[in-house]
Specification:
The protein is of the alpha/beta class. The protein is built from 6 helices and 5 strands; from the N terminus they run αβαβαβαβαβα.
């Protein structure tokens, strides 16, 4: 993870982890959060997200606390190969270090059962794609 500046203002920016297997979608969501002055880290899979969060291989924290970024919100796609957004959500919510971080599921799938399952598993919101500036504006006060 790179930090371009160590200014106090940048250190206080909300940090969002954006996970989507589609590069174009990741970039659009990244730009939307950056428009609201967020720092954004990207991952293209649930597995990569777990690595960034220090949760891969069931290692919640293994003495590498200084390398695990503080994340104020996680935005993840639902339909991804290998590990879908629901499976990622469950792993995050099982973690003692990340369970309180708000997770938003962004998906083109609008199946009510899927949406209910995600909300019941701890998702803050289930937002239909495409994510819009008004969606990000609503999320800003909910960041931890």
């Amino acid at each position: 993870m790179e930090v371009c500046s160590s200014s106090k203002e940048e250190m206080e920016q909300p940090h969002v982890l954006v996970i989507d297997d589609c590069r174009a979608t990741r970039m659009i969501i990244t730009l939307l959060f950056k428009k609201f002055s967020c720092k954004v880290t990207n991952a293209e899979s649930g597995f990569e997200a777990l690595e960034i969060l220090g949760l891969s291989d069931d290692k919640q924290t293994s003495g590498n606390d200084n390398k695990i970024p503080k994340v104020n919100m996680i935005s993840t796609d639902y339909n991804m190969p290998g590990m879908n957004g629901y499976e990622l959500l469950k792993k995050i919510k099982e973690s003692s270090t990340m369970k309180d971080v708000p997770v938003v599921i962004v998906s083109s799938n609008s199946d009510p059962t899927l949406i209910n399952n995600c909300i019941e598993a701890g998702a803050l919101m289930f937002i239909p794609k495409p994510l819009k500036p008004s969606d990000v504006e609503k999320l800003m006060p909910m960041m931890k």
